[in-house]
Write a structure and sequence with these properties.
With 285 residues, the protein is mainly alpha-helical. It is built from twelve helices and two strands. Strands 1-2 form a two-stranded antiparallel sheet. The chain binds fe (ii) ion (FE2) (2 copies).
Amino acid sequence: MNRNNIAENPISQSKLPIERRRVEFTLDDVTEKYYYRGNPQVSAFFASLSVGFPPGEAEFIKSVKLFEDQITDPKLREEVKNFAHQEAHHSFQHKLLNQKLNELGYQTGGIDNVFKEKLARREKQWSPQRRLARTVSAEHITATWAHWALGSEEKMQHFPTSMRHLLQWHAIEEIEHKSVAFDVYQQCVGDRRLLNWVYRHFLYFEFPLSLTLTTRALLKQDNYKPTAEDRRVFKDFLFAKKDGMVSSLWPHYRAFTKQGFHPWALDDSGLVDDWKGTLSPYFAH
Ligand SMILES: [Fe+2]
Ligand SMILES: [Fe+2]
């Protein structure tokens, strides 16, 4: 793939159809508060990610739709609609998961409110261009995480099956639509300096800080003191050289600010094809 051509050609460069699916996960097997290997830290970390999805994804949709009228490429316009459909359904499914997590003892209401207030403030204070740049940034992090979720079975196998499949379905769709916000930005804004600045702020500051604070807040509800083994599992989960969620894909997180970058420079369409078959029993088209 010629990355320079992609950067110069400001229309849809998607590699996969962005499918509209309906899914159903019972979540009957999510029965423990510390559902991931009995580990409170990994479990709270994913609970806080899940709480962040519904407000976050609502903002992704809004910020892309702000530019809908300026999109000249009919393929990209159609993709925006399918992207919005997918993100809305992710939110719906994560709300069901969050409800389940609340039943298991996580009190997520306060965190949800903080997210919503922060986004409402930004809606008033930030320019549409900056909001779209943040969405493009978050979509790259999400798509990179999605690549990890589909390629790291050893780590993923410890989630309860239905929750693992929910996360992997979400991952498939994040990869399918990973270039939509980017292509909209390229066509309608095109300011790479702004984009790189917003991305660096998101990657090194906003995202890790927000996740650390929300994970800590959830753990504090139990007056939790981590054991050495808890710490080891959590550290391995994030930073194992071979398949850590952060460390193993660090070059892909960083690739974003390189000249000529496009989300499909990492072609993971094969991963999606492999997983679609496994998860198809959950899909009701
Ligand atoms: Fe999503
Ligand atoms: Fe997304």
